[in-house]
Amino acid sequence: MSDITATSHGALSGAADEARYYVHEHHPEHSTLLGFWIYLMSDCLIFASLFAVYAVVGRNYAGGPTGAELFDLNLVAINTAFLLLSSITYGMAMIAMQNKDLRKTQLWLAITGLFGAAFLAVELYEFYHLWHMGATPQTSAFLSAFFTLVGTHGLHVTFGIIWLITLLVQLNKHGLIPENRRRLMCLSMFWHFLDVVWIGVFTFVYLMGVLP
Transmembrane region positions (predicted)? Predict the structure, then answer.
């Protein structure tokens, strides 16, 4: 009888050890953040490819308008300020999250979303103005590369705003639970990544584009 009890106890202990093994094996700590870093690296490759294409064909105007003729640096500077300010306000949201202040976290996230929406509005206005002037992706290789690169970044900002709105709903429903804190960290990396990419766009596309 004691042998049976010992065997049963050993089997249960082995099953428990196996369960613990599989939990740690398939759900390692910080795996979500690691996976998101891998995603960001893949996004880096996408933007690197788009920058490379623009570097090759960015001076192929095909008799059409050049960047110096099309770009309004004052408008682009205002748009850049919107995005950089959104990065600051998101940082304030993260500080509020660390202080476990739900209302301030939501407030700063909402302000971040407004700055992001303002950035998209100005970018859409710029695109509309260019199309109204006849500067479309079909005009030249330069404009094809320009609309693809800047449009891809704008699409990422759009997804970021949708994600931000979803997080605001989740925060209102569940508060600063560990899952929401982790999601805020992931969105923070994504949002700051878009700011870095935009600095590259502003410098490489717009500033260098107005040079003769």
Answer: 36-56, 76-95, 107-125, 145-169, 190-211
Instruction: Name the packing angle between helices 102-132 and 141-174 (round to 10°).
Output: 160
| Long-range interactions of 98-105: CB distance < 8 A, separation 24+ | 100/176, 102/171, 102/175, 102/176, 105/171, 105/176, 105/184
Report which of 43, 45, 68 is spatially closest to residue 58, judged by C-alpha positions: 68
DSSP letters for 31-65: HHHHHHHHHHHHHHHHHHHHHHHHHHHTT--TTS-
Scanning 99-205, the segments in alpha helix (DSSP H) are 102-132, 141-174, 178-201
d(CA 123, CA 53): 21
Inform me whether the pLDDT recorded for 5 exceeds 70.
Answer: no
90-110 average pLDDT score: 97
From residue 140, how far is each of 4, 41, 56, 59, 103 by CA, in Å? 82, 30, 13, 9, 49
For range 68-83, the mean pLDDT: 96
- C-alpha to C-alpha distance for 164 and 109, rounded to whole angstroms: 7
pLDDT value of residue 23: 47
| Cα dihedral 85, 89, 90, 92 in deg (nearest 10) | 140
Nearest to 80 by CA among 211, 190, 208, 194: 194
